[in-house]
Design a protein that fits this description.
With 311 residues, this protein is mainly β. Helices cover 0% and strands 61% of the residues.
Length: 311
C-alpha cells in the first residue's frame, strides 16, 4: 500500500480529478503559485511555469504526455515530460488519447457563432471540416482511422474514410453535445446528449454500427465505459441518491446513497466492470465488481480504479 500526505507544492493534491492511476502507478498533479507540478508515487517528476488544470495524462515509451487547460482563462498545452509540444492561447482542450505510437487531443474554439473542432497530433493541428454534414461535433483517431461525428440536415453522421453511418434526429429532444468513444476493437460509438424540453431531463442516444437506442432519466453525473467487451453506463437519479449501473437497456445494479467521486473511480476491461464507491452518510468504501461488493477497509472516497489485464 502507498500512503501519501497531501502536499500541493510537491504535486500531491486532494482533488479526485488530479489523480491518474495506471496499473500500480499513481500520478498526481497540482497547480501552486505560478507553477504546475506532476508527481509519480508522491515524488515530483517535473514542474513548469503556468497554472494548468490537467485534463489528460498518458504514460508512453517516450515519456509522460499531459494535456492542461489554462486555469486563468482560454488556452491549453500538450506536453511531453513537461515540455510543450503544442500550445494555443485560445480554446479548451479535451480527450487526450493514443492510437499506436501517436498521441492526439481535441480542442474546441469558436469564431463568432461558429463552433470549431480541431484535432492535434502531437505538434500539428488539423482543423476538422465536415465530410458529409453541416458541422463537426467530435473527432477521434482509432485503429489508424480518423472517426468523425457530424451534424447533418436530418440527423447525425458517424464516419471514417471508408464508412458512413446515419442516425435520424429524435424529436423533441434538444441537442446538447456529442462524443465519440473507442471500443476494444478500435471501432467508435457516438453518445448524443440531449434534453427533454419542459423537464430538463437528460436523454442520450447511443449510436453504433448503424443502430441506435435511447436511454435517459436521472439528473446527476453520467459516465460511459466502452473499453470492455460490454458497454457500461453509470447514472444518478435527479436527487443523486440512487446510482444505476447498466449495459444497453438493462440495469445491472441499483445502489442507494453512494457516491462515485469521478469517472476514473470505475473501469471496464473484458467482461469485468469495477466501480469504487463510498457511502454518502459515511462509512467504509467498497468495490462493486460484476454484482459482488467488497469492502476496501477504509473510510473516504476512492478516486481511481485500474484493472490489470491477465498476463
Amino acid at each position: 500500500m502507498l500512503a501519501l500526505t497531501p502536499d500541493i507544492q510537491s504535486g500531491i493534491g486532494l482533488d479526485p480529478d488530479t489523480h491518474f492511476l495506471f496499473s500500480d502507478s499513481l500520478y498526481t498533479t497540482t497547480s501552486y503559485a505560478d507553477h504546475t507540478t506532476v508527481a509519480l508515487g508522491g515524488k515530483p517528476l517535473f514542474s513548469y511555469e503556468g497554472r494548468e488544470y490537467i485534463v489528460g495524462l498518458i504514460p508512453s515509451r517516450r515519456g509522460l504526455w499531459t494535456l492542461g487547460n489554462n486555469r486563468s482563462g482560454e488556452g491549453f498545452a500538450m506536453r511531453l515530460n513537461g515540455e510543450a509540444v503544442f500550445k494555443s492561447g485560445s480554446g479548451k482542450a479535451r480527450d487526450l488519447h493514443m492510437d499506436g505510437d501517436n498521441v492526439y487531443c481535441i480542442y474546441d474554439s469558436s469564431v463568432g457563432a461558429e463552433s470549431l473542432v480541431t484535432l492535434v497530433q502531437e505538434g500539428t493541428s488539423h482543423g476538422m471540416t465536415p465530410r458529409y454534414g453541416l458541422s463537426v461535433i467530435d473527432a477521434r483517431v482509432s485503429g489508424g482511422e480518423l472517426w468523425m461525428l457530424e451534424k447533418g440536415e436530418d440527423g447525425w453522421i458517424v464516419s471514417t474514410s471508408e464508412e458512413r453511418f446515419d442516425y435520424a434526429f429524435v424529436p423533441p429532444f434538444q441537442f446538447r453535445m456529442g462524443r465519440l468513444y473507442t471500443g476494444p476493437d478500435g471501432r467508435c460509438t457516438a453518445v448524443i446528449s440531449t434534453v427533454a424540453p419542459g423537464y430538463g431531463m437528460p436523454v442520450e442516444i447511443i449510436c453504433s454500427e448503424g443502430e441506435s437506442f435511447i436511454t435517459g432519466g436521472g439528473g446527476g453525473s453520467i459516465y460511459h465505459y466502452f473499453e470492455g467487451s460490454i458497454p457500461y453506463r453509470l447514472c444518478y437519479d435527479k436527487q443523486c441518491t440512487h446510482l444505476s449501473i447498466s449495459t444497453g437497456m438493462k440495469e445491472l445494479a441499483a445502489l442507494d446513497s453512494v457516491v462515485v467521486s469521478n469517472r476514473s473511480a470505475a473501469a471496464a476491461l473484458g467482461d469485468h466492470m469495477v466501480v469504487a464507491c463510498y457511502p454518502a452518510a459515511g462509512g467504509e468504501a467498497f468495490l462493486w465488481h460484476n454484482g459482488n461488493i467488497n469492502g476496501l477497509g477504509f473510510e473516504g472516497y476512492p478516486t481511481g480504479v485500474s484493472i490489470n489485464p491477465p498476463k
